[in-house]
Amino acid sequence: MTPRDARTLARYNAWANKVIFDAVAGLPEGEATRPRQSLFKNMVHMLNHNYVIDRIFQAHLEGRAHGYAARNTPDHPSLSELWRAQQDIDAWYVVKYDALAAAELNTVVQFTFVGGGEGAMTRGEILLHIVNHTSYHRGFVAQMFYEVPARPPTTDLPVFLRDVPQNAA
Questions:
Q1: Average pLDDT over residues 22-43
Q2: First and final CA of the chain: distance in angstroms?
């Protein structure tokens, strides 16, 4: 992974999170927290899972304990509170990956998985995981839109590359 790739991916993830949060906020009252057939209860709880994983890997990158005992919390904050927190962590990833040189992207980070066991990933692999993981679970949220019924937003990388000027990356 090149530094330019890392910068693009961090920005893509922040953009896609904004798109999905805006869409969820635009749903009829109560739909974001309506119980769904899902491991993560509802749309907001699914988005909270993404946030928790982002925070866990932030701690891994910083070489500190994250304090989470599971990959999600029993409950979730309001959508607006979660969105503020998600914006903060997304900005952190953008700044973090803006600052990394190519050699640093290949630096291995040792960590312990929440469920136990040791892990090791490069800083670049961690970013790939964050982007892939978040995209995967945004897809679950998009599927829940059809139960509203509503059309989910498009959060694909090609749409980001088309719609967002790339000179910042």
A1: 96
A2: 14
Which DSSP category does 69 fall into?
S
From 89, 85, 8, select the one nearest 54 (Cα to Cα). Answer: 89
Element counts in the chain: helices (H) and strands (E)? 6, 2
* CA 46/CA 52 separation, integer angstroms: 10
Count the Cβ atoms, other than its own, within 10 Å of residue 143.
Answer: 14
- Written as one string, the DSSP assignment of 20-59 is HHHHHHTSPTTTTTS--SSTTSSHHHHHHHHHHHHHHHHH
Q: Does residue 141 have a pLDDT over 90? A: yes
Q: What does the alpha-carbon distance between residue 90 and residue 165 come to, in Å, rounded to a whole number?
A: 18
Instruction: Tell me which H or E stretch contains 113.
Output: none
What pLDDT does residue 167 have?
A: 73
**pTM for this model (two decimals):** 0.96
